[in-house]
Every structure is written in structure tokens, then in C-alpha cells.
Design a protein that fits this description.
Chain lengths: 192, 192
């Protein structure tokens, strides 16, 4: 147990990222980008490092991969470390800025294997990404008793009004299959 | 700039926490607890380590202080590090669990100098705290052009329906005074 006066929280990728994720190619289409996010979600389940959720952040126009994120709540004892949040903080660490929306930076986009929860949707607004693409929907997650929290149609409108594009259901069956795999493997439902 | 393949995000308190915050006393009343959260928000501004937002997590019944949190977005180049989120992750690091709502743990509560944004309200749900107490309101923050994001009356109802008590306006003028101090000092409005 850490001492209360000076706890240190350290967030790193699990070791399999180095073998699985190719940071040196360009990801050209929405499907290629989503396929990466889904492969991260699947590896997280198969390697036993967390819940069935994966994400990735790209430079929107070049398709350059900036970061990935995987649910790390249980692995790192930290409720804030959903896949999207890990992707945001890693991207900001890489570019050296608290926002991905800076005059010196190209536009960025988030791909996530499953619809963001309330926390991650709020974080999306602060992250500076200009575009959000998701695979599985909240109904798919609910079927596994993963809760999305207070997200309403107006929540999406709020983001869209601020210039963030939302794209739904890209490779949804492939994304949902990882949720089903997790259920089969009887994973821990930490938001249940 | 960190290498993309293995970024490391490290979150620690700024050094003034060790001098300012007394982890060895019990905080008996809501006012004492809120006064600590406000003193953290004020120190963050006066020491130049971040935005005017402070938080603290206590064991609800004993008044034992578990963690504090201060806005660390600019200091650590990380949009997720609002005061409440830092408090959650530090508390979970201290107790060694991804949730503060465990059979082995006493009930915990969050005190925050200002009404939580959409991200932090979502995080509140996952954190496991049973009670949220805030000082300044969203209108006070909006006056400084700090945005709260997609938070609606139904968002609070969602948390309350899940057994989380919400208490508003505790020491609100003192909390608001720190927002005003920040404005006077022309702090950076990173969500603007």
C-alpha cells in the first residue's frame, strides 16, 4: 500500500503493445483504423490485461498512429483508465501538449471499439480530438452489464455543436465479438 | 517528446502538498472537509501549478483523509487530470483497489471546490464514492469561461438513482473567491 502523502500513479502500455501494434505504417481508411482499435480490445482480453475495450488516436489526414489505449482499470487499480482515457493521455504525452487541438498540430481523431461512457465522452471534449468513431454500441455493452453512465442524445449534440464529428457502427459485429469473447471468458465486470 | 511506442504517464502531487496538507488529522464536518479542498484549489493557483480546482477524498464516517487532487492538466500535459480525477486515482492507488466501494472498505466521499464537469461526474460513478459535496457551481465556473460539458439535471438523477448523495453550495463564496483570484492572475483557461 502506497503512503498517502506521496502516491505515484504510473500508466504504461502492457508489454504486448510492442509486438502487436505497428506504429510505423499509415492507417488509411476508417475500417483499417477501427480494426486496430478492435485488435487492441481483443489482445487486452486474450492476454488478460483488462476489459474488452480498445482505442487508438490518429492524425486524421495522414493516418499516422499517435497512441493506443486499452481498458486498464483492474490492471492498474484506477477507475479512470478506460481505453479512450488511456489513448488521450498517451497521445498528449507523445505530442507534449494537454490538448490535441493546437495550431501547431494537425487534426486528431479517436477510434474506439465501443461507444464511450459518460466519463470518456466528457474527456473527448477536453482532449481536442475533432472526430470520434466507434464500433459496438451502448446496447452491446449493456448486454454484458457494462454501464455507460449518464450519456443522453443531448450529450452527443453538445459535442457536435462544438465541431466534433461522431461516426457510429464501424465494424460493429467485429467489435461486438470481442465483448462476447470476454463474456465467454467470464471476465470481471468492474462497472457492474 | 516521448517515443510513441512506449510513453510513460506519471502522476504525482506537486511538492507543496507535503507542507500544506495534514494527512494525520480527522476532518469532522462538511465545512472542514470543504475548506481543505478549497485550500488545495487556492494553493494550486498561488503556487502556479494549475487551474483553480481542488478536491479531496475522505472516509465518510471517520473523516480520515485518503487523497487530495488538484487540476494538473497543464502541469502534466494531460487533459484527464482534473482535480477530481487526480483525487480518484490517488485514492485508489492508496487503497490498492480500482473502486472505493468494496466490502473491505468503509464508505468514501468526494469533496470538490467546484461542481464536477461531465468527465468527472462520469468518473464519480466509477470511483465508488457514495457522496459528492461541491462548493462553487457551474455558473461560477462559466463566468471564467471554464466549460462543464454535457451535464444535465438527468445526469445528477442518474447518480442519485445509484445511491450517490449530492450536496451543493458548501462554502460556495470561499470556493468562488479562488476562481476570482485565478481570473485576477490571468490564468490559462485550458477548456476555453
Amino acid at each position: 500500500m502506497s503512503h498517502r502523502t506521496n502516491p505515484i500513479v504510473s500508466v504504461q502500455y502492457p508489454p504486448w503493445v510492442a509486438e502487436l501494434v505497428d506504429f510505423n505504417r499509415a492507417y488509411a481508411t476508417d475500417e483499417e483504423k477501427m480494426r486496430l482499435a478492435i485488435s487492441v480490445s481483443r489482445a487486452n482480453v486474450e492476454r488478460g490485461t483488462g476489459g474488452p475495450f480498445g482505442a487508438a488516436i490518429f492524425e486524421r489526414d495522414s493516418g499516422r498512429l499517435v497512441s493506443v489505449g486499452m481498458n486498464s482499470v483492474v490492471r492498474l487499480n484506477n477507475c479512470t483508465l478506460h481505453g479512450e482515457m488511456v489513448a488521450f493521455m498517451m497521445a498528449q504525452q507523445v505530442v507534449g501538449s494537454f490538448s490535441l487541438n493546437m495550431p501547431s498540430l494537425p487534426p486528431h481523431e479517436l477510434f474506439t471499439s465501443c461507444e464511450p461512457c459518460a466519463m470518456c465522452l466528457g474527456g473527448t471534449l477536453w482532449s481536442g480530438v475533432k472526430r470520434v468513431v466507434y464500433g459496438a454500441g451502448r446496447e452491446d455493452a449493456s448486454r454484458l452489464n457494462f454501464e455507460e453512465g449518464p450519456v443522453f442524445p443531448e450529450s452527443y449534440k453538445y459535442l457536435e455543436d462544438r465541431g466534433i464529428e461522431i461516426v457510429r457502427d464501424v465494424l460493429r459485429p467485429e467489435a461486438r465479438a470481442v465483448l462476447e469473447l470476454y463474456r465467454t471468458m467470464s471476465g470481471k465486470i468492474y462497472n457492474g
